[in-house]
């Protein structure tokens, strides 16, 4: 079975020509920005938009829209997996993985983070986001193409075992009980078994599903493995998985700012991650803030001008002629990005 992405998103796009109906009446003018109401209006006049009617998207915007559409595609694929217990690997490779590749080549990290913050369909959006983030992180870590391909598909499928978890637990609008949490943790084992059955997938992709909740100090699950026994690709996905989960809104809690989550991860408050992977991830994301204005916890506003390599979560801030080094002013930290 083939799954197809949702219809292209026209809202927010600008017309590059006047649109007339069959009677020659102007319906929408050149340079008009399309809204949802406009789509209904055009349908009433029997006008169907095409890419040729609209200003072209930048490569980055086009890739972000593909990522957004892939959430719906993955939802259909995963729902099929829930019923069959088998992964349609050809559909994943044909419909999802090319989008991952284009996102790596075209999207900067900050637009990706903003685009992929979970708004709905958390289970499916999370897998797409972790796939994209892990692919970026794998490239930053210098993985060769073969390993990068194994990482990318393993990251997209890292939570596929949740399709074997009862829906009343998976979709519960609140925190899980201890018993439900123990059931939820089984998704790592289920995912490993599902991926292992796919002859075309590398064994390390299955290990990602199994090990992405393991931690360097042996405090993770399902097997409480310590550093040297955890596959390197699983360590990359572990960082991306926790980061996206905690920077996304859930029914039972609001998302935390990404720089706050980075600080907590970097200081070990959210578990013990591979330090070289985490340092690279933190530096790259914090470097995306250079030039941005941020509000500090004392209410003052300044511009991020330098990310120190030793602790990238505490940058140098400029306020007019004054500089604040957050690595030394430990009573201060970033509160929010202005704008």
UniProtKB/TrEMBL annotation:
Residues 101-297 form the HD-GYP domain. This is HD-GYP domain-containing protein. Its EC number is 3.1.4.-. InterPro entries: HD/PDEase_dom, HD_GYP_dom. SMART domains: HDc. Keywords: Hydrolase. One of its GO terms (molecular function) is hydrolase activity. Gene3D superfamilies: Hypothetical protein af1432. It holds the Pfam family HD_5. It comes from Cohnella boryungensis. The keyword Hydrolase applies.
């Amino acid at each position: 079975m083939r799954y197809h992405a949702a219809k292209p998103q026209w809202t927010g796009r600008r017309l590059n020509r006047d649109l007339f109906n069959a009677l020659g009446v102007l319906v929408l003018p050149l340079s008009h920005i399309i809204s949802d109401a406009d789509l209904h209006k055009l349908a009433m006049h029997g006008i169907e938009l095409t890419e040729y009617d609209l200003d072209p998207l930048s490569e980055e915007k086009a890739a972000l829209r593909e990522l957004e559409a892939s959430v719906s595609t993955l939802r259909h694929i995963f729902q099929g997996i829930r019923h069959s217990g088998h992964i349609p690997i050809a559909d994943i490779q044909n419909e999802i993985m090319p989008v991952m590749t284009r996102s790596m080549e075209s999207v900067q990290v900050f637009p990706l983070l903003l685009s992929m913050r979970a708004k709905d369909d958390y289970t499916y959006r999370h897998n797409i986001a972790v796939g994209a983030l892990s692919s970026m992180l794998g490239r930053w870590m210098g993985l060769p193409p073969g390993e990068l391909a194994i990482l990318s598909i393993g990251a997209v499928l890292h939570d596929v075992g949740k399709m074997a978890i009862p829906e009343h637990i998976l979709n519960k609008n609140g925190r899980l009980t201890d018993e439900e949490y123990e059931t939820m943790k089984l998704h790592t084992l289920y995912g490993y078994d599902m991926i292992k059955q796919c002859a075309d997938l590398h064994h390390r992709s299955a290990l990602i599903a199994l090990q992405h909740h393991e931690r360097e100090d042996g405090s993770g699950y399902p097997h409480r493995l310590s550093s040297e026994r955890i596959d390197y690709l699983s360590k990359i996905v572990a960082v991306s998985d926790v980061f996206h989960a905690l920077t996304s809104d859930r029914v039972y809690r609001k998302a935390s700012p990404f720089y706050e989550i980075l600080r907590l991860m970097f200081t070990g408050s959210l578990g013990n991650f591979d330090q070289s992977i985490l340092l690279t991830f933190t530096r790259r994301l914090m470097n995306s803030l250079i030039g941005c204005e941020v509000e500090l916890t004392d209410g003052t506003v300044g511009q991020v001008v330098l990310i120190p390599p030793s602790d990238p979560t505490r940058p140098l801030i400029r306020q007019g002629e004054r500089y604040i080094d957050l690595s030394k002013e430990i009573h201060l930290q970033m509160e929010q990005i202005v704008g």
